[in-house]
Amino acid sequence: MIWDELESALDSLEADGLKRHQRTLEAPCGPLAVVDGRPLISFCSNDYLGLANDPVLVEAACAGARAWGVGSGASHLVSGHQSPHVALEARLAAFTGFPRALLFSTGYMANLGIVPALVGRGDAVFADKLNHASLLDAVQLSRAESQRYAHGDLAALERLLAKSSAKRKLILSDAVFSMDGDLAPLPGLLELAQRYDAWLVIDDAHGFGVLGDEGRGSLAHFGIGSAAQRLLYMGTLGKAAGASGAFVAASQTVIEWLLQRARTYIFTTGSSPLIACALAASLDLIESGDARRAHLSELTVQLRDGLADTRWQLLPSPTAIQPVLIGDNHEALRIANALYERGLWVPAIRPPTVPRGTARLRVSLSAAHSAAQVASLVAALQDLA
Ligand SMILES: *Cc1c(COP(=O)(O)O)cnc(C)c1O
């Protein structure tokens, strides 16, 4: 019976060290978390610039709620598309250098919307093996043929493209890989997209706001102009931007097509206008956020230098995502628990989120951390190693 199957499946997750648990935070997102009444220094969030609980955003959200209420009341194509959404889309397009942008409620939904709108049966998607789960799901939903290439391997990608006789081709990649922190070779991906007449969709969930001039993201980091008609840029607004939501920036034609065809845009309630108001304030802080980004880089260097000669391998990540490779699921959990006992909260990331045998601690840094907080994590990890 299905009941027994579920119970035994849950038991084996527990036995394999793979059972997930929620922890309830009793404080807003920030470097100091409170769980079960206990204060902890948190290295878990994607709030890279420390904006999630910034008073400027809080005030903009409150003012937005007073002016616009709480809910949009309908989907964007019915009556849920309000002036704050329009203003935010225009700003996001200008900020990322694309002709037009379209808001989605989450990054997951944006990805699920984009891929099936562009490709279907008879087409092929070429995807990096370490792409985010939402991109994998998006390919499945599209019914296009899925071709996965070894992580960051342009030569492998080119072999697949050269062999393919698919009608439409789409290359799909994270810009910053969420569990490894490294960057995709974006200039090479764009060059292959041009050479093989493919679309290129870039998911910049972890680069938007953090990388590039004024935080314009990974394309800016690599000096890639947006002019290419084959390029779609997806950024999320729940990480560095500190709120929630996502956007796709692209040419006028592509955005118009997504508006007609992306089902996760069409068949869902428009995001709250107060979030759009908070995000306008967030973009101001991102644009003028060089000091925050410089502090974040300093913390990243401090952590990497501090852990350089422990027995655990650091992955080659230049970003705020700093994974400490442990390997074994149980050991990763044991170390995460030992840190937790010392008041340091670092998540243990295990399969299926990462490949088998590569369980890791995923340290994520924020501009809201102090050097002293990072020093205490370094000291504890040195001690446990
Ligand atoms: C977080 C993340 C998403 C999903 O974005 P949400 O707004 O949280 O739904 C998509 N892609 C990548 C690479 C991510 O890290």
Could you please describe the fold and organization of this structure?
Helix content is 42%, strand content 17%. The protein has 385 residues and is an alpha/beta fold. It has two domains: 17-49 and 290-384, Alpha-Beta Complex (Aspartate Aminotransferase, domain 1), CATH 3.90.1150; 55-287, Aspartate Aminotransferase, domain 2 (3-Layer(aba) Sandwich). The protein has a seven-stranded mixed sheet, with helices on both faces. It has a four-stranded antiparallel sheet with strand order 10-11-14-13. A hairpin with a 6-residue loop joins strand 10 and strand 11 (321-327). Helix 2 (55-68) runs antiparallel to helix 11, helix 4 (107-118) packs parallel to helix 5 and helix 12 runs parallel beside helix 14 (371-384). The protein starts with a helix and ends with a helix. It binds pyridoxal-5'-phosphate (PLP). Pyridoxal-5'-phosphate (PLP) binds next to helix 4.
Bound molecules: pyridoxal-5'-phosphate
CATH superfamily of the largest domain: Type I PLP-dependent aspartate aminotransferase-like (Major domain)
How is the largest sheet built, in terms of strand order?
3-9-8-7-6-4-5
**DSSP strand count:** 14
The number of helical elements comes to 14
The helix content, as a percent range, equals: 40-55%
What is the strand content?
15-25%
- The CATH topology annotation of the largest domain reads as Aspartate Aminotransferase, domain 2
Rg, alpha carbons: 21 Å
Estimate the global geometry from the Cα principal axes: globular
Under the CATH scheme, which class of the largest domain? Alpha Beta
Unreliable residue runs = none
Secondary-structure element sequence? HEEHHEHEHEHEHEHEEHHHHEEHEEEH
Query: How many structural domains can be distinguished in the coordinates?
Result: 2
What structural class results from the helix and strand content? alpha/beta
Query: Kindly state the mean pLDDT as a whole number?
Result: 96
> How many strands, what sense, and barrel or not for the largest sheet?
7 strands, mixed
Distance between the termini: 45 Å
The CATH level-2 architecture of the largest domain is identified as 3-Layer(aba) Sandwich
